[in-house]
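queue> pop job 88
queue> type: inverse folding (structure -> sequence)
queue> payload:
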């Protein structure tokens, strides 16, 4: 609910320029990246990692609740960064708990199902948010209503999830020593992540792609439709993509998802009109949940269970650093031309796809086992 309207709140509600969207997104992702590396490493050494994740969910909810009081975009930056620090605390632990709860041969489906449900939330929540805005409620009403699912998320994770380690940790905590195939895997992840700018830029671009045929309110409504449409596509494709990755190989499916984002950038740079907007929604939706789910499942194949927290912390840290670089770069390039932003994303994401495709065989042979 919050992330769907935040770019509009910053630009339309607070009157800030578009480049501040990239700045807010980038700094929040950078703060989250640093916390993820520590959180993952530390979670492998304590028996109470689940409660650290619960605290992360609570911090995210509190950070977004602070938006009720902000009056300027720098205050939004602080609120967003605090929320994403909470995300950094919880994310590696949640991924490690999930990976430790299923056999490795089912990791694609497990993370695919997780991303499908996550993306369904990113469809239902924004639908509620935009319905509130359409019925003359303000942005702050959306932020207030969003407190409800925030509280439910903390409560459900605290009382319904089960840590497969059952509160125990190894007598001798594992060293922070990850295998070479995992570090090799992080190379295409980093290249892709540096070009994988925030989806908010596509949402803003859609408005431009439909002008001057539509008025500003109509184009804005179309951008809302784009946001909902690409999340609907993501909800539909995430689990089938995970199922396919378990059978056809995770690296080829992930390389295809990277290439799909590059193609979306090409459409965003050159496209115009309704057909281009529809194609853009299809391409963005087809890759957005697939990338994190297959990255997580492929990482789980390369790492033994007792080091999963450290591995997911490093994976998420690299992705967060890439998000920082890509969002800030995309925002600055946008000042020169939106086409420059799209070209930047297309080149780097295609490069990441090519590297991963070239190394797919080596990564497939480096699995630590099937149980």
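queue> result:
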């Amino acid at each position: 609910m919050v992330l769907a309207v935040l770019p509009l709140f910053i630009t339309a509600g607070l009157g800030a320029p578009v480049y501040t969207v990239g700045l807010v997104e980038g700094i929040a992702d950078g703060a989250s990246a640093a916390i993820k590396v520590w959180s993952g490493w530390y979670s492998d050494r304590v028996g109470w990692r689940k409660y650290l994740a619960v605290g992360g969910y609570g911090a995210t909810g509190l950070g977004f609740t602070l938006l009720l009081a902000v009056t300027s975009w720098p205050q939004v930056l602080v609120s967003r960064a605090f929320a994403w620090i909470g995300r950094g605390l919880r994310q590696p632990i949640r991924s490690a708990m999930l990976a430790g709860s299923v056999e490795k041969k089912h990791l694609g489906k497990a993370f695919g199902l997780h991303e499908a449900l996550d993306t369904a939330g990113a469809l239902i929540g924004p639908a509620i948010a935009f319905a509130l805005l359409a019925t003359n409620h303000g942005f702050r009403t959306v932020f207030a209503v969003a407190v409800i699912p925030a509280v439910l998320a903390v409560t459900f994770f605290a009382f319904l999830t089960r840590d497969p380690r059952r509160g125990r940790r190894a007598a001798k905590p594992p060293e922070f020593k990850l295998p070479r195939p995992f570090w090799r895997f992080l190379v295409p992840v980093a290249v892709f992540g540096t070009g994988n700018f925030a989806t908010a830029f596509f949402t803003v671009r859609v408005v431009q792609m439909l002008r001057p045929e539509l008025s500003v309110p109509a184009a804005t409504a179309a951008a809302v439709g784009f946001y909902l449409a690409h999340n609907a596509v993501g909800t539909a494709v995430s689990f089938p993509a995970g199922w396919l990755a378990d059978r056809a190989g995770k690296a080829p499916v992930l390389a295809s998802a990277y290439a799909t984002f590059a193609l979306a950038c090409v459409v965003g740079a050159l496209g115009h009109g309704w057909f281009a907007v529809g194609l853009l929604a299809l391409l963005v939706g087809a890759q957005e949940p697939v990338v994190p789910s297959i990255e997580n499942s492929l990482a789980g194949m390369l790492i033994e269970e007792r080091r999963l927290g450290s591995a997911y912390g490093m994976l998420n840290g690299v992705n967060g650093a890439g998000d920082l670089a890509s969002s800030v770069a995309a925002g600055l390039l946008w000042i020169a031309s939106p086409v420059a932003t799209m070209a930047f994303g297309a080149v780097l994401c295609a490069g990441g796809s090519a590297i991963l495709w070239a190394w797919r065989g080596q990564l497939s042979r480096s699995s630590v086992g099937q149980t």
